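Structure first, sequence second, as always.
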């Protein structure tokens, strides 16, 4: 019976942003070891990373194609791959690993086109593989608590959603044409690398998934205004959303809001109460029941749901954050694969990670927002 897994990574060299967060998060539970990688197409930078993690030199690959093929032919090959490259590579890299019979966890947005995302789902199903898409905020403990409260009916029927994801880091680009770009922003503003959207694709998509995760609501259609400020891709987006239950919501995402760094805030309003979760203060959840003062739920306290308690890593008052959110996604994803390699069925809690289906919803949302904005903010069905 296997208790641990082997994994590989594509992208995420030592100088990249998110690859290191993935590796650290995976290490939290000690159930998967990094054994292979293609961290950068430049072999010097690639080796630097592979050697840092003490990989076998033969498993530091010069291309993801070679990595997928050679790993799938090894008896001790990787059980899953984490894809942490810029967006344009997600589809082709994921497809290659799936075709080689390797489980995939891919960063968001899943692909450039809806059809590509659907094709990936079909291939994963055909090969009986687990495919996670890293909408990381749904890994937060108090986001799970919010979901439990909605499921228990504590705030009644959902009648309105108000969510925002505000950043300021591209404000210097407004009206100034193609500026010298910050490292973080360099590829995100290039349509060939980022896809059809910058702001909605990069952060609006997190709103879309986090709300869907908490509420279970499906978006029927959107009406959007995207602002480009002279840039090739959007930097600011105000989106009106209609859900299939008839409720409406407003999703505001922006990279030009001075004073905001990574301000994801989700507010869910129901007939009996409201819930608010703020990413920059992730260990608390504000819950207001009709006619009562606002209550603050603290992560780790005895009154939280079993699900939240089960996902706890530190005692209350010791903040958990981004790393723990990623680690929780991997905890479930790795548990599901461990069950699979041992020919057992994962339970519902082990399957609590964002899937390729969520990835498809995300790409549909991005497409609908861009289309609506181009069509003078007409309603566009997802
Ligand atoms: N879920 C989240 O919260 C979150 C946060 C940040 C970024 N992301 C996503 O993660 C992805 C990466 O973002 P980032 O900010 O880390 O970018 P980055 O530019 O910092 O890193 C990208 C990495 O991909 C590597 N790469 C590029 N082409 C490659 C190739 N052909 N083969 C192998 N490696 C290659 C680069 O060398 C680099 O190491 C993006 O899709 C982004 O949307 C998600």
């Amino acid at each position: 019976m296997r208790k641990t897994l082997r994994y590989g990574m594509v992208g995420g060299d030592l100088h990249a942003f998110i690859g290191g967060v993935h590796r650290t998060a995976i290490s939290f539970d000690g159930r998967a070891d990094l054994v292979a990688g293609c961290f950068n197409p430049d072999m010097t930078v690639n080796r630097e990373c592979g050697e840092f993690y003490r990989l076998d030199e033969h498993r530091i690959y010069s291309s993801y194609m070679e990595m997928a093929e050679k790993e799938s032919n090894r008896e001790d090959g990787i059980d899953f791959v984490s894809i942490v490259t810029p967006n344009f590579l997600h589809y082709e890299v994921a497809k290659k690993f799936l075709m080689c019979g390797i489980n995939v966890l891919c960063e968001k947005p899943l692909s450039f086109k809806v059809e590509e995302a659907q094709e990936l789902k079909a291939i994963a199903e055909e090969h009986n593989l687990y495919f996670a898409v890293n909408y990381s905020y749904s890994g937060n403990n108090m986001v799970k608590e919010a979901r439990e409260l909605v499921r228990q009916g504590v705030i009644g029927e959902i009648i309105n959603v108000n969510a925002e994801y505000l950043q300021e880091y591209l404000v210097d680009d407004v009206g100034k044409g193609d500026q010298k770009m910050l490292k973080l922003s360099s590829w995100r503003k290039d349509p060939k690398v980022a896809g059809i959207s910058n702001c909605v694709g990069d952060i609006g998509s997190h709103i879309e998934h986090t709300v869907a995760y908490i509420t279970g609501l499906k978006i029927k259609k959107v009406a959007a205004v995207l602002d480009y400020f002279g840039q090739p891709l959007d930097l600011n987006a105000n989106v009106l959303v209609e859900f299939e239950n008839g409720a409406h919501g407003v999703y505001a995402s922006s990279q030009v809001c001075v004073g905001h760094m990574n301000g994801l805030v989700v507010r869910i309003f129901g007939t009996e109460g409201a819930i608010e979760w703020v990413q920059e203060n992730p260990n608390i959840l504000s819950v207001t029941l009709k006619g009562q003062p606002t209550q603050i739920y603290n992560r780790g306290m005895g009154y939280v749901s079993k699900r939240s308690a089960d996902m706890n890593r530190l005692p209350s008052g010791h903040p958990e954050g981004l790393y723990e959110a990623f680690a929780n996604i991997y905890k479930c994803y790795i548990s599901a694969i461990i069950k699979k390699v041992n020919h057992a069925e994962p339970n519902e809690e082990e399957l609590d990670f964002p899937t390729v289906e969520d990835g498809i919803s995300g790409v549909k949302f991005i497409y609908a927002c861009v289309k609506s904005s181009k069509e003078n903010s007409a309603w566009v069905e997802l």
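Margin note: The longest helix spans residues 322-341.
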